[in-house]
Amino acid sequence: MSESKNLPRRGFLRHSLGSAAGLSALGAHVVSAEEDQKAAPDQFQEPARSLPLADDADVIVCGAGPAGIAAALSAARAGAKTRLFEVHGCLGGVWTAGLLTYIFDFDKPGITREIIDILDSRGARRSENKSRFVYEPEEMKILLEELCAEAGVEVQLFTRVTAAFQEKGRLTTIVTESKAGRQAWRAPVFIDATGDGDLGALANCEWEIGQSIDCPCQPMTMNALAVVKDAKALGKYISFNGTDAFTGEGGHLTAVEAFKGELERAGIEASYGHPTIFHVRDDLVMLMLNHEYGIKPWDAAAITEATMRSRAEVFKIMRALRKLGGPWEGLQIAATAEQIGVRDGRRISGRYKVTREDLIEGARHEDAVTRATFGVDIHAPSKEANAKEPIGRAETKAKPYDIPLRALIAKDVDGLMMAGRCISGDFVAHASYRVTGNAVAMGEAAGAVAAIAAQSKRLPHEIDWSEGAALLEKTRRQG
Ligand SMILES: Cc1cc2nc3c(=O)[nH]c(=O)nc-3n(C[C@H](O)[C@H](O)[C@H](O)COP(=O)(O)OP(=O)(O)OC[C@H]3O[C@@H](n4cnc5c(N)ncnc54)[C@H](O)[C@@H]3O)c2cc1C
Looking at domain 59-212+345-381+394-475, does it have CATH number 2.60.120.10? Predict the structure, then answer.
């Protein structure tokens, strides 16, 4: 999409000699605005300054959601010096900062198995099913920190990637912002796991979003944890109690309809047409109740409004239900998500684009990094659509299909890979592959290929997937 071309580009970066660890406060070596060129009246010409530069990583991963974590673990385990940047104060992305609590398409070899085993050993997973289950978000936070520490991943939280610089068509340097100020980082290979494709966009890659740039796109949702007096008393309103979520027989949709009846009794209509309660543990549940339409993930003002509106809606619903008494007596919000859940972000153009046709045909590829089995799941893009059909399938009956390594390699700039929901695909395919089991598998593959590329002084597109697969075979733990 051409809008990426309008992103501000800083034409230069002056490198200082300081090491990253030795950075001091913000804004060393600032040039005064008066010294710089005059900008247009509604623009501020940012003065040039030197930044401290760290040039010691083999692989830099941006974003620590399910995809970024897996990418960083797999690169570090392959012996690559790996840095991981995350803007929030915890690892896990939508799993933790987003309070998701539910996982799809997870029954795959590798890091997915490890996570299942650790959750099970801590009693933090519900369901016999290894593909879809409830997990506890705080347990997820701590286990991801432990895995990263053990693998030697250099993690920096509270750090946002804000600029990217190329040399001769190759991404060489990124800039981050944090309480440590602006810092520059070099590496031979970068992985964009920001979900929203921030790094790819900053590197001037072509990208798409939703059904078009004007964003008929999937809505955002603010998840919340709540405590109840007795979760068993709410049993018939709780989804995903062991039955299949999307067949519509019993299970999920029956629970949703029963819950909607209670909301009606309380005089409330949730903005999400399939309001859902998940049982996390004991008397802790997760509420997924709202939809925010047409919000672009890079529009900070719109996201702020959507976040506040969502939180207000969650509390309004909680208070109305509590007034009903009975099983709702004592219902309390325990936490609202740090980050409103973003379903649709940028999809960075790669050397292959996963499409709706791939799903219909059940595409097979020699460089398949994983096989996705989750169906198409399109939350209504508007209030009107939500009233008719809260979740659509775009008339697509998906067969299990392969995601090739090429969809994880940027086409417009060398040295950049993607993993998770920002890989190269179309709107309908994204509505299937974006779930977290696939994000982990893609991350794991990207991390391995990035490590091989960095260590052998090649570019990701010069690596044959058989090398990546062989490396994973060697470094994977048996689950
Ligand atoms: C409301 C909702 C419900 C969903 N339901 C399910 C479900 O039931 N099961 C399921 O498996 N999937 C579900 N999904 C889909 C799934 O959660 C996502 O597609 C998945 O999170 C993809 O993982 P990711 O790592 O690509 O992205 P994310 O989880 O979004 O992780 C991206 C990370 O990058 C960080 N980041 C972003 N920008 C920057 C930057 N510039 N600098 C540094 N860090 C940055 C973010 O803070 C975040 O931690 C749901 C999604 C939403 C929003």
Answer: no
Residue 62 backbone phi and psi in degrees, to 5:
-110, 120
Q: Is 192 in the pocket of ligand 1 (CB under 6 A)?
A: no
Domain-by-domain residue ranges, the chain? Answer: 59-212+345-381+394-475, 223-336
**Can you tell me the distance from the alpha carbon of 399 to that of 410, in angstroms, rounded to the nearest whole number?**
26
219: which residues sit within 8 A by CB, 6+ positions away?
272, 291, 292, 293, 294, 295, 343, 379, 380, 381, 386
Pairing of strands 133-135, 189-192: unpaired
Q: Specify the residue for token string 């939350």.
A: 379
Q: Which CATH architecture has domain 223-336?
A: 2-Layer Sandwich (3.30)
Q: Is 158 exposed, middle or buried (0-12, 13-18, 19+ CB in 10 A)?
A: middle
pTM of the model: 0.92
Biggest alpha carbon–alpha carbon distance for the chain:
69
pLDDT digits (tens, 9 = 90+) for 134-161: 999 999 999 999 999 999 999 999 999 9
Nearest CA to ligand 1 atom 19: 434
Q: Which atom of ligand 1 is nearest to the CA of 95?
A: 29
